[in-house]
Amino acid sequence: MLKLIAIGLVAGLFSALFGVGGGIVIVPLLILAAGFEDKLATGTSLAAIGITALAGTIFYAFEGHVDVAHAALVGLPAAGGAVAGTVVQQRTSARGLSLAFAALLVALAIWLLVG
Fold first, then answer.
1. Rounded to the nearest 5°, which phi and psi values hold at 65?
2. How many domains does the chain have?
3. What is the distance between the alpha carbons of residues 13 and 70, in angstroms, rounded to a whole number?
4. Per-residue DSSP letters for 40-79?
5. Mind listing the pLDDT tens digit for each residue in 56-97?
6. 54 is in which domain, residue-wise?
7. Residues 27, 18: Cα–Cα separation, whole Å
8. Model confidence over 36-47: pLDDT tens digits?
9. This prediction's pTM
10. Which of 94, 96, 11 is nearest to 47 (CA)?
11. CB 19 within 8 A of CB 56
12. How far is CA 11 from CA 34, 94, 102, in A?
């Protein structure tokens, strides 16, 4: 239980600082620190990040840093992408998901360092 609380605190911090939390923080920590299997970690992360996103959005909105129209332009298609991603994830092996996720993180790291 304490591990899950710590994972939540770390995810909330990184979510507010960098706009990340679910896939980059919560999922790996649930798998590595809490012993969740990949698909359970992903589903749990999606549920948790909804709560985190709501809390962060409220505080950013108080500061005038939320553009609702642009959020909808990104968020509505993202919801469709989440449904599609869930369908693909349910049909992909845990090893395949881990390799694809690692490749994504490496590609993003290179892009951030070079770009």
1. -110, 35
2. 1
3. 23
4. HHHHHHHHHHHHHHHHHHHHHHHTT---HHHHHHHHHHHH
5. 899 999 999 999 999 999 999 989 998 999 999 999 998 998
6. 2-114
7. 16
8. 998 899 999 989
9. 0.77
10. 11
11. no
12. 14, 22, 19
